[in-house]
Amino acid sequence: TSRFYMDYGDFVAGRGFTINGVTGPDEYTALINNNTYTNLMVKDQLEFLVASLTEEISTQFDVTDNEIKQWKQAAKQMYIHRTDSALIGQDDSFLTKGKWPFEATNEAQYPLLLHFHPMKIYQKQVLKQADLILAMVLQSERFTAEEKLVNYDYYEPLTTHDSSLSPATHAIIAAELDRMEQAVSFFYYTARTDLDDYHHNVKDGVHTAAMAGSWLAIVYGFAGLRIKNGNLHFQPKLPKEWTSYQFRITFQGRLIEVTTNLKGTTYRLIHGETISIFSDNNSVQL
């Protein structure tokens, strides 16, 4: 895949490595240039590849020194559409479009794709699901706290959440930003997608990704799980409407139980070797 990206992308003077003619996670924005989510994920892959190469792998796949040099250069010079402020473009052209007329769109006209021609949708600033905000979850360390706040406040109001994949991602970032009322609302939307038939299509099958999203909203959202430098980091928060939550995760051969309640958060090593984790940036030995 790294060879594909090098073939598909281009080094452009004054910009760096660009990837044009793509569609990112958002299905209401298609065939654009330099989708930030896509470019960051490719950057991450190239960096991982270079760091993971061994002589055996290089020999097996005929990797040349020039290829490695180009992979490093592409990762370092990956183009991201930044502005003069903390606002980041979802892609090269998104911020140049007019915004969707939400005030003139009634509830019966959602989801938009069933009531408007795609070319009409593609012309506007409107999202079906998380795109740049998804990048802020999966590539969290590449964004500053200010960038997360500014971009969440900009892109969330433009998102219809017509996709059942969207609320869970927003719940995670909302919790990180201490927007707990929004985070809880997105969580319940995710958890009750099929129970309340929000998309009027349960007759066709259940939304298993949304089911998984409810777990992610708790673990990555309210518990604040992130993996940094190979270590587990938690920043647990308890919604005011709740008295507790509990889950277990497997990490590097260990099974760890996390419980957050009105008294605080406890961590228990169910099985496996001793491990150090971090809770609110404090080291905890299990």
From TrEMBL:
Instruction: Set out the biological process GO terms recorded for this chain's protein.
Output: carbohydrate metabolic process
User: Where does the record place the Glycoside hydrolase family 65 C-terminal domain?
Assistant: 225-286
GO MF terms listed in the record are: hydrolase activity, hydrolyzing O-glycosyl compounds
Annotated membrane-spanning segments are: none
Residue stretches in coiled coil: none
Residue span(s) of domain Glycoside hydrolase family 65 central catalytic: 1-215
SUPFAM superfamilies, per the entry: Six-hairpin glycosidases
Q: Which UniProt keywords apply?
A: Hydrolase
Give the matching PANTHER family: GLYCOSYL HYDROLASE-RELATED (PTHR11051), MALTOSE PHOSPHORYLASE (PTHR11051:SF14)
Q: What is this protein called?
A: Glycoside hydrolase family 65 protein
Organism whose genome encodes this protein: Listeria booriae
